[in-house]
Amino acid sequence: MLMSLKLPDEVREALPDETSRPVAVEDEVTHRVFVLMPWNTYEKVQSVFAEGFSVSDAYAAQSAVAGAAGWDDPEMDIYNSLVDRP
Fold first, then answer.
1. Residues paired with residue 23 on neighbouring β-strands, in sequence order
2. pTM above 0.70, yes or no
3. SS3 track for 31-73
4. DSSP single-letter state for residue 21
């Protein structure tokens, strides 16, 4: 379960408006850095933090995004020959 704290005015005012990007926050005493992100962004990435996550779980999504970006175009096959293979 996540702990819920209220943001002090100073922190809220420092956060960028309308962003889904994370914001780094440093503890002045311990110098540890934490990340603040909007809840909807966290919901999208929370599975990465789950126990048992493997990067291979994301391969299907990566393939779909790469295909939509044109990487499955036959003309892109030229890049396969540029990689040194053992």
1. 36
2. no
3. CCEEEECCHHHHHHHHHHHCCCCCHHHHHHHHHHHHHHCCCCC
4. S
Give the SS3 label for residue 66.
helix
- pLDDT, tens digit (0-9, with 9 covering 90-100), for 75-86: 888 887 777 766
Q: What SS3 class is residue 19?
A: coil
DSSP state letter for 55:
G
Instruction: Report d(CA 46, CA 53) in Å as an integer.
Output: 10
Tokens found for residue 43? 């919901």
Rounded to whole angstroms, the Cα distance separating 80 from 86 reads: 13
Distance CA 58, CA 37 (A): 21
Query: 21-44, pLDDT tens digit by residue?
Result: 788 889 999 999 998 888 888 888
State whether residue 14 is helix, strand or coil.
helix
Query: How many C-beta atoms surround the C-beta of residue 22 within 10 A?
Result: 14
- Token code pair at residue 17: 């408006």
